[in-house]
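Worked example 3 (structure in, sequence out).
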């Protein structure tokens, strides 16, 4: 079992984040909190990578589809397909969106990296993300709007929601040799129990 300070998570700046020149801002927020970048690259995703990444089950499709049906009915639009079909459409729209342009894929490491990055990123829906989070500060999209427009929600960034998922997603986007284990001086302040060697 690795030390908690070695936990890794997967992060991706989506095409809208790249197009809006927010890569630096996003990286700055990750680094500022004390996490370190173990791998980083600009990549044009393939459909196969995206379908593998968004590996969802029937229950997920049904749950998301129910939300789409509710959004459509609230807007006075027809909703004549089963919920699962609307859920699958969400992933198809995501794949179309994610393959529309380059993304920045990253492996981020540090204590409770998965949870800390989730806190920095904010909730999946920008409309309900807290002020101070990446999504809350830099975009204004909503599930209802994206559902009506039949497109993926534009929420700038993806992050893993648990360590096992981070490990699975990392393997889709990075080869093992692309992930660099290195010591960062910042870690001495964050993790050294005694803070040895500060005073001369």
């Amino acid at each position: 079992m690795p030390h908690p300070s070695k936990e890794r998570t997967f992060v991706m700046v989506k095409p809208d984040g790249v197009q809006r020149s927010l890569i630096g801002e996003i990286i700055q927020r990750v680094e500022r909190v004390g996490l370190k970048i173990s791998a980083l690259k600009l990549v044009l995703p393939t459909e196969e990578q995206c379908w593998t990444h968004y590996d969802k089950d029937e229950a997920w499709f049904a749950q998301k589809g129910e939300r789409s049906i509710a959004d459509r009915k609230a807007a006075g639009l027809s909703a004549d397909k089963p919920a699962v079909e609307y859920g699958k459409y969400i992933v198809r729209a995501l794949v179309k969106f994610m393959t529309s342009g380059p993304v920045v894929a990253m492996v981020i490491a540090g204590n409770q990296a998965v949870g800390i990055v989730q806190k920095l990123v904010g909730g999946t829906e920008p409309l309900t993300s807290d002020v101070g989070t990446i999504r809350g500060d830099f975009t204004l999209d909503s599930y209802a709007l994206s559902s009506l427009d039949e497109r993926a929600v534009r929420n700038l960034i993806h992050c893993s929601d648990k360590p096992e998922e981070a490990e699975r997603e990392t393997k889709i986007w990075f080869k093992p040799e692309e992930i660099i284990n290195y010591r960062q001086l910042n870690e001495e302040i964050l993790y050294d129990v005694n803070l040895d060697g500060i005073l001369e």
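Notes: The chain has a mean pLDDT of 91. The CA atoms of residues 52 and 172 lie 7 Å apart.
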